[in-house]
Amino acid sequence: MIRAVQGKIIGVWLVIVTLAVITATNVYAAHHAKIAIVIDDIGYRQTDISAINLPGAFSYAIVPFAPLTHQLANAANNNNKEVLAHIPMEALQSNHLLGAGAITVDMNKRQLTRQLRLAINDVPHAKGINNHMGSKLTTLTEPVNWIMEQLSHSQLYFLDSKTTANSVGESVAAQYGIQTGHRHIFLDNIRDKAAIERQFARLIRIAKKHQSAIAIAHPHPKTIAFLRTIGPRLHQLNIKLVPLSKVLAQTNKLAGTILTTKPTIAKPQLISQLN
Questions:
Q1: pLDDT value at position 95?
Q2: Does 194 have pLDDT greater than 60?
Q3: Largest CA distance in the chain
Q4: Is pLDDT of 269 > 60?
Q5: Nearest Cα residue to 37 out of 221, 251, 249, 241
Q6: E strands, 194-234, in order
């Protein structure tokens, strides 16, 4: 009799311990820090395939109407990688060449919407967009509203590349109920291993503090060589590299940014201050 009771007690205790372990594991997973690394400017060079072939859940911002747009977007999708359309938008510096598919501030709503649709449709498998340049256009409320209206219809997300501190992209996207966020760092603005390492350390600090972080990188040889090495380091740091959409889903849920009302379109206002 005593042994039977003891056996039941031990059984109940094992169940409690098991449930505690499962709960702790689920809590840990829920709070597991995540990073997304978006590799921009994909589509111009055959060597871009080395970026597509990186091990890990990198995301790829592919330029519409570039020579290798379709080939590289399909290759990324076949490798189970996430694809964005990297939409050229007008910059403050007029000497910057935007390329085909660009959105400019002199477009009316019909022209802008048509151009945006064409550009997105030229990038197979795109789940969202981010801006290529855009330090002028992303400060103007009216055209940004037009962009977000189209993205909301297409159920695509928006990543603000944050080429200007005065961008209204993320805030307007949130008002349209679009999953959105902004890049926290550029990983390789300085193409030097030590500089990339410093930026990567910043990315890790941000992720640990806020549970997620977003970096933008480019398909430079030094960057690709560095990114090949980060998998084991992230594992040791208990940080997970995930597709951009997973970070946006997490941050939007935590911030409560998804709204149901459409914003009032304000008069466009140009602000020239840069990062």
A1: 59
A2: yes
A3: 89
A4: no
A5: 241
A6: 212-217
Mean pLDDT of 253-269: 44
At residue 83, φ and ψ (nearest 5 deg) are -120, 135
Q: Yes or no: say if 185 and 198 are a contact pair by the CB < 8 Å rule.
A: no
Q: In whole angstroms, what is the distance from residue 244 CA to residue 226 CA?
A: 20
Tokens of 148: 């977000």
**What is the dihedral sign for C-alpha 68, 69, 72, 75?**
negative
Q: Which domains does the chain have, with CATH numbers?
A: 34-255 (3.20.20.370)
Q: Per-residue confidence at 159, pLDDT binned at 50, 70, 90?
A: very high
The helix or strand, by DSSP H or E, that contains position 50, with its residue range, turns out to be: helix 49-52
The one-letter amino acid at 57: A
Whole-structure pTM value = 0.82
98 token code pair = 């935007």
Cα separation, 154 vs 7, in Å, equals: 59
Taking the CA of residue 219 as centre, how many other CA atoms within 13 Å lie in the half-sphere pointing to its CB? 22
| Interval 89-140: pLDDT, tens | 999 987 567 888 899 999 999 999 999 999 999 999 999 999 999 999 999 9
